[in-house]
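Ticket reopened. Same input as before:
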Amino acid sequence: MFFIKNMLFKSKPKFNKPNATESSSFTFATEMAQMNIQLQETFRMLPDFVSRELTNKVTFGVYYLSNLVDSELLNKEILNRLIEIEELLSPEKLVDLLPIGQLLLDDNWNHMQQYILQGWTYIHISGYKYGILVNTAKQRERALTKPENESQILGPQIAFTENLETNLALIHQYLPNPDLSEIAINMGENTQNNIRVVYLRNRADLEMVTHILNTIQALDLESLLDATVLAQWMEDNPNSAFPQTITTERVDRAIFPLLEGKVVIVVSGSPNVIICPTTFLDFFKSIEDYYYRWTVGLFLRGLRVLGIMISLFATAVYVAALTFHYETIPQAFLVPLAQSRARVPFPPLIEALMLETIIQLLGEAGARLPSKVGQTMGIVGGIVIGQAAVQAGFTSNILIIIVALSALSSFTTPVFAMSNTIRIIRFSIIISAGIIGGLGITMSIAFLILHLLRQSSVGQPYFYPPYTIENKNKRDGLVRMPFSSAPKRSVFANTEENNPKGSSDIDE
Amino acid sequence: MKRFNLIFLVVLVLSLPFTLHLKANVLEKLGMVIASGYDKVDGNKIKGTYVLHQIDPSSKSTILTITSESLTSKGARVAANRQSHKKVVAGQMRVVIYDYKLAQSGLSTLVDTLFRDASVASTIYMAVSKESAEDLLTHKYTQFSDVGSFIVDDIQQNILGEQMISGTLHEFLSALYSTADPMVPLLQRKGDSVELKNVALFNGDKLVGTVGPREAFFLKTIRDRYKSGSIELSLATNQLGDIAKNVKEKTVRIVIENIASSCTKKLISQNPLKFQVNIKMKGVLTESSAQLDFRQVGVIQTLQKKLDDESEKQIQILLKKLISLDSDPIGFGEFFRSRVYHSNLTSDKWHDMYKSASYDVHVDIRIVRMGQIQ
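Engineering reply: fixed in the latest deploy. New output:
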């Protein structure tokens, strides 16, 4: 068994040591010509690299990548001004003339190269060993839009974009709070990601923040494409089927946990932010529950919990009842059920697995297809397959209802990652129900609870309210209470009841 | 170690289906019995009749009836299995019917197999049939297609409506193993229909006699709290005195619908054995054969008094009848045992004492309404 495992997954990935960059050997030179050659050499594979010498009375070398810079800004603020300069200036003086510029701090060639690759412009002054860097980068981002994947009826209709600065500005806009703290971490040699760990200094448990920082810093990632990737790296148990952090595109969904004393991690280039720590029940709460009046919120949350139960156990109960426990079927239901099963050539387990797979295929096909074709897909799947399968004696019509119901209920979960998990776990419960009946369902529940109890999210208990029930967090665990009686902060917060943990200054 | 645990778990889970003696009973491969009936036939044999659900969609009939003979009831089911294309199982059985002769010779061995079977619920109904159970179950009824479901529904709706005493397996066994005696409904085929005719009374596991539905009403009222049912009482006109001056008929028949009744029992003396039975009942007068003028003062009171007397008389007759049958379905024995410390009462001992029991019955009927207008 383990031999096959080794064959499937190579235990040690082949490690390609990246070739040392040729430019690393370059050093800054005083002469313009020498610098020109070196820079040309460094960026020889980038055709849009511009190296210009502006010679009026003094000679400046200006170097940038033309498709990354904001050309209007470059012309107006830099090129025009440089031409007007009449005397030889030291770089320190030049910085004063160019407000958006900054002094090149060290003579590390790689750093300068990195800045140019991010759209900055390097200005070299003949006769000095170092020049200045000006931020002329043009940010390419889409406009702020409505959240598309986590749509809601009530509440703010604004989503994060791919731009780190915009995302942070949105958070600041909602929380103009002096205690709002950000810690910056850079990561990814290839992608040069900025990561910001955002929390409220007076609310968050600082021990936990330190833990998160240490976890992120310990990761030495070469590239980081999205926050969801970072979320996976941060997970305490990557082998669990359950997601251990929530990633969200909704701004309000990220503000709420901040107020609760949780930590939000923003990654540049990703429209999702990570919320941690997260408990199991958090996945079934929608922020919209708090926008509705509490009776409605309570009902909708209850409906969602019912949906999870249905989607996990409905098909399994059908399989168990039909395979082992025919005694439990109500009499009024018995004959129609038996008659619809009479034509089906497969045992209930195979029948259920087959139909579940068809439903999952439909869902997956619907997610991948363009929306116009997607509608056709729904008709083909829902009507043709559903109706035809029964008439052909492929499945019983009662199973179609049950499977459709459980598929429907699995999509009520507000966090998409969790609804996917439930879709997968369902299969193992169905199989165990098909092998040993109701006992199998019971055992699955037991294993599920055991597994959940063992999990942790950034070092905090994952299966939280069932794991330790304290007086203050009985409320708002699963039950949406009126605001007057609900606790204001989560248990992970640094509140009066929870004594402060960790020191207030966190080393970066 | 961790790897060992994993392997151990997998082996454990995979071996469970074999070690647990789990039998897959796939629904459509089962012949599910709705009702079974047992008859006594000559030579110590039992004849079993089984009404099965017919789940073939193309079949005209909704049931399948199988008859088989064997020495035991379980054997009869095995014999029935040989005649069926599907495995005969008892998990969906709702009613068991024993014929009169079989019940007279004792049911404990037959009931025993039911409660040993985990798939048989203890809430299944038991009944005794006046004639043979085979005739009851195999007769071609023209008014309904599924005799099994008909009997089940008939018993069920009458028990839920509290028109009939409840005779489930659980109640039968609980009475049998205590000092009380069981009672179950008695069924009789009446042409093309099945009727809940009487209540069959047992002494231990042997049937000793029957009482009619009117007496069953009093049985129920004495036994426990009660919220429905109705009594029909005939009062002699001349006893009613002034209030029935204009009535020509010799008897006035009154129907009282019970709203709520409660019964308290007291042990007055042990030697001689004497119990007091107090019944309080609220009722609605729903029918009266004579036009009585209820607006006059005292009419209702007089009527109530007469109704009390009449029902006391009838209850006394019933209790005497129970003693003469040597059957204690009300559970005075249990009541005695709960009141007398260290009585060490056994069923045999109680039946000896029961013969000498006497009762002091008080009935208090209150007519709270004269019918309702919608």
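Chain B has a mean pLDDT of 86. Chain B touches chain A at residues 3, 13, 16-17, 20, 22-28, 30, 32, 34, 53, 55-57, 62, 89, 91-92, 94, 119, 121, 149, 152 (CB under 8 Å). Please confirm and we'll close it.
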